[in-house]
Amino acid sequence: MTANPSAAAPEAPTLPPATILGYPRIGRRRELKRAIEAFWKGASSEAQLQDTARELRAATRARLVELGLPAAGGAVPESFSFYDQVLDATIALGAIPHRFAGAVADAAGSDLAVLFALARGDKDHQPLEMTKWFDTNYHYSVPEFDERTPLAANPAALVAQVTEARAQGIESRPVLVGPVTYLLLAKASAEAGEGFRPLDRLDEVVAVYAELLAALAAAGASWVQLDEPALVSDSLPVPRAEVLKLVERAYATLGGTARGTARPAILLTAPYGDSSQALARLGALPVEAVHADLVRGSLPESALADGTLATAYAGTQLIAGVVDGRNIWRTDLRAALATATRLHDAGIATGIGTSNSLQHVPHDVADETQLDARLRSWLAFADQKVEQVAILARGLEDGTAAVEAELAAADAVLADRAAAPGVRDGAVRERAAGVTEADRSRAAEAERREAQRGLEIPQLATTTIGSFPQTTEIRKARAAFTRGEIDQDAYDGFLRAEIERVIRLQEEIGLDVLVHGEAERNDMVQYFAELLDGFAVTEHGWVQSYGTRATRPSILWGDVSRPAPMTVAWSSYAQSLTERPVKGMLTGPVTILAWSFVRDDQPLADTAEQVALALRDEIDDLVEAGISIVQVDEPALRELLPLDADRQADYLDWSVGSFRLATSGAANEVQIHTHLCYSEFGEIIDAVDGLDADVTSIEAARSRMDVVAPLGDHGYSRGIGPGVYDIHSPRVPSVDEQAELIRIAAARIPGEQLWVNPDCGLKTRGYEETVASLTNLVQAARTVRGA
Ligand code: MET
Ligand SMILES: [Zn+2]
User: 3-class SS at 317?
Assistant: First the structure.
């Protein structure tokens, strides 16, 4: 065992026993969203926006103290962000890509203007790319690095928060994405030299972090939190063992300076997964506290048993992340306390924390006044989770008996939930238990291809991904219907007129396979959640997705079944209007799970199976009603891939299995499509193959068909539609541009397999650019076909 440098300091501080890793930033009523969007529109000044942000931060701190976090000692995290925490780190490091030099000049010294320019781009600049944060549905702004990317500590925002908190009588803890995770999430800029990796600049970046920490210490911060979720992921550019070495190197430097003057005490966190293999080594670093996610992860049993863990943590505190920051269920307090107590009893200075930042859950269950009271009693949003952390901390400090009443109340909630009607539905379970492998297989590909000839689909067939622009009129009609201002008949009439318009438009444009346009859907998951049994929807349960965008995930609380058809009326109406095939449109089981809060009392695989059976019945009904092509979207297939390599095979097995269960009841004549809207699917290409869909559409335009080569090499034999129109921007791609992309694809993939379509749905686009782009798309397909 190497010497533990912090063990040598007898006065090593500890955090109060109750803390959380972060809190929702957008505000209880999405105040920050409104304030930022008003500022973007020019309806308010930067000073007004800063005032709103300051008030929100102050209210958050006060609320956290009210809920039970101590005001002193660094328990309250400063997790505010105007847009994204990775982007905040970019600003704090001064790592503004050269291509934004013009935007920096325009910003005239305003960090906020620079931040928004990076996040959103402007007329001259493409914004930073956005991508999903670990295995969540939150998106961060991807840093861009090359050999010359500037670096200069800019601690202003962090220091301001510490100062504000002190003025409020609260000793808070600034939070920053750690240097190793930051660089592992960065990408090489377009100007980077051959072979450059952002990680090549780790030592320089660590030096800037050291400056930031010094500024925080000077401002009076006693603690800083550095988040290193890279420690739990096998999906990064370097293997996990290497990540640990990089963390050791970075924190030897960061922790190696004098605590108090050169830096605050450091809390190093490892949220979103299992760090058990690394935990003992992290304890030996010169940091004052280490956090472990003990919801997704586990305790290192052998190191705990043989005392290695306790030795490593002599002088280092361990924050046990036992309250789940990813879901909305009340915690099994007795089990959580037992886990933390094992660490405590092993002689480790133990604190209670959340598994990860609470940014992934809504604010407060108390706001959900419309929710069924019994269901509500089972739930815990961010505020309730903070209270649970405080209870557990009391139990850890004062002994189980001190919180026996709270533990008993939690036991009663769990028992009530387990016994409640609908949580287990005998018929649903019996049907799921009877599923056989035969239910997951369709006939051989060639046989299906033959049977589908009757569809008369041309080579390079043109189609769209499903949604057409969600216009203001559509939103207004939906809102009026929800408020009861128009009745069901009026609303249905409106939607039918909309469908007819979209069908006629597609015929005019000349698309081969049509869609009904999805005007009836508020959201591709919530729409189904509202129609399936076993789900509930919230009123205020907003969770940040990126920037000012938030989603309201549904709550999947019970066994899932389908009381009635969900999409048949719309799809069959659309089909009745045209001779061309109209695709039925469903959201797949994995995506429905990924974008909802799911029950935690059974494996995800079992829940997916129930959703799949409901979708299987829907497909039967669609086909019965005359639909011959059904698309089942699975855009979240990649997102739910476990960070832990050991868990990936099992995941791919059940996720692919649930898709096949949903789709394999379809006769050979029925063409099954799927859609995945990202291009980095190298890792899951076998899974995509395993879905066995007749046609798969994917994102490809932004990467200029990068995905096509791996597909060609893989010998992918079914239909594939690599997007030729980037729907993320209002820009209209020309005929030539789209034809060029089709040709790139056609060079690797036989024409009869190739489909021509946009990257994703068109719901966020306007009609003008949509019609122009699709007209060009059809023309591009014709040009290439004729060549
Ligand atoms: C995020 S994937 C979206 C697929 C859906 N069918 C749409 O077109 O909007
Ligand atoms: Zn998509």
Answer: strand
Instruction: Return the residue whose CA atom lies nearest to atom 9 of ligand 1.
Output: 761
What is the CA 715 to chain-centroid distance, rounded? 31
Query: What φ, ψ does residue 644 adopt, rounded to 5°?
Result: -85, 120
Q: What are phi and psi of 173, to 5 degrees?
A: -125, 110
Query: Which pair of structure tokens corresponds to residue 243?
Result: 């990540």
Q: Whose CA is nearest to atom 4 of ligand 1?
A: 761
The 8-class DSSP code of residue 672 comes to: E
Cβ contact 213:621 at 8 Å? no
Q: Which ligand is nearest to the CA of 588?
A: 1
Protein residues placing their CB within 5 Å of the ion ligand 2: 635, 677, 760
Low-confidence spans in the chain with pLDDT less than 70: 1-11, 679-681
What integer pLDDT is reported at residue 681 of this predicted model?
67
What is the reported pTM? 0.94
Where are the strands (E) in 114-195, listed by range? Answer: 130-132, 139-141, 144-145, 172-177, 187-188
Given a contact cutoff of 8 angstroms between Cβ atoms, the answer to whether 154 and 94 are in contact is yes
ipTM: 0.99
Other C-beta atoms lying within 10 Å of the C-beta of residue 685: 15
Q: What is the structure's pLDDT at 435?
A: 98
pLDDT at 5: 44
Q: Scan for tokens 């973007």, then name that residue.
A: 40
Dump pLDDT digits (tens) for 313-358. 999 999 999 999 999 999 999 999 999 999 999 999 999 999 999 9
CA–CA gap between residue 364 and residue 370 (Å, rounded): 13
Catalytic residues: 728
Amino acid at 658: S
Q: What is the DSSP string of 425-490?
A: -HHHHHHHHT--GGGG--S-HHHHHHHGGGG-PPTTEE---SB----HHHHHHHHHHHTTSS-HHH
Whole-Å CA distances, 284 to 178, 240, 423, 484: 18, 18, 45, 62
Please give the distance, rounded to the nearest whole angstrom, from the Cα atom of residue 633 to the centre of ligand 1. Answer: 7
Q: How far is the CA of 635 from the centre of ligand 2 (A)?
A: 6
Q: Report the alpha-carbon distance of residue 515 to residue 503 in Å, rounded.
A: 7
pLDDT of residue 1: 36
What b-and-e string marks burial along 565-576, b requiring 16 or more CB atoms within 10 Å of the CB? bbbbebbbbbbe
Can you give the pLDDT at residue 679? Answer: 64
**Which atom number of ligand 1 is nearest to the Cα of residue 587?**
6
Residue 23 Cα to ligand 1 midpoint, Å, equals 30
Is residue 645 a contact partner of residue 421, using CB atoms and an 8 Å limit?
A: no
What pLDDT sits at residue 3?
40
CA dihedral 588, 589, 592, 597 (to 10 degrees): -170
* Residues linked to residue 622 through DSSP beta bridges, in sequence order: none
Element (H, E) at 651: helix 648-663
Both tokens assigned to 428: 């649903």
- Residue 649, Cβ density class (10 Å: 0-12 exposed, 13-18 middle, ≥19 buried): exposed
User: Which of 750, 684, 743 minimizes the C-alpha distance to 718?
Assistant: 750
